[in-house]
Write a structure and sequence with these properties.
- By secondary structure, this protein is of the alpha+beta class.
- 17% of the residues lie in helices and 32% in strands.
- The protein is built from 3 helices and 10 strands; from the N terminus they run E-E-E-E-E-E-H-E-E-E-E-H-H.
- The strands form 4 sheets. The chain has a 3-stranded antiparallel β-sheet with strand order 5-10-7, with no helix packed on it. It has a 3-stranded antiparallel β-sheet with strand order 6-9-8, with no helix packed on it. It has a two-stranded antiparallel sheet with strand order 1-2.
- A hairpin with a 5-residue loop joins strand 3 and strand 4.
- The longest helix has 23 residues.
- The chain is elongated, with a radius of gyration of 31 Å.
- The N and C termini lie far apart (78 Å).
Length: 185
Amino acid sequence: MAPRNCVIDTSANLECSGAVEGQVTPDVDGTVRAMYAMQSPEVWFEDFGSSTLHNGSAHISLEPLFGGTVNSGVEYHVFLTPKGECEGLYIASEGPEGFDVRELRHGKSSVGFDYRIVAKRKGYETVRMEDQTAQYEARKAREEDRARRMAEAAAHPSAASPRRVLHARPAEPPSLIPQRLVSPK
């Protein structure tokens, strides 16, 4: 198995060679299980919500905080799950501010539904499986150099770290130490 590690660079990019574990959680049998983060070849953010059709239609406005982090002006994806009997649901239109949901066959129901929206992160719209070969090779070379230096230091400890002689500062003569003024009681 290849070595697994994570690196956070000076631009706050996280890169891991192993699985990205999001959290560990206790199971009902007392064991602790790992949960894993989903990976994607593109930079997506997602949000979830619920709404209700009224007379077969609904308009969903993007939540402002989420909308501020994504570029909803480019294609995004919405996944719908009806929460009751209906003819089925579809996205009638989508735009930068939100999307419209309709019931199939010109239905008129007032069923609830859940949605999941996945949109490209602002500033990363064109990133897809970015070639990281040069960064990987440079980091690998730095790690190998560091391992070599550590091995040399372990083999020759006196040559690796010269001793420093620390000189204690002489104490101040008593006459130069400020005296506390104590007021008589």
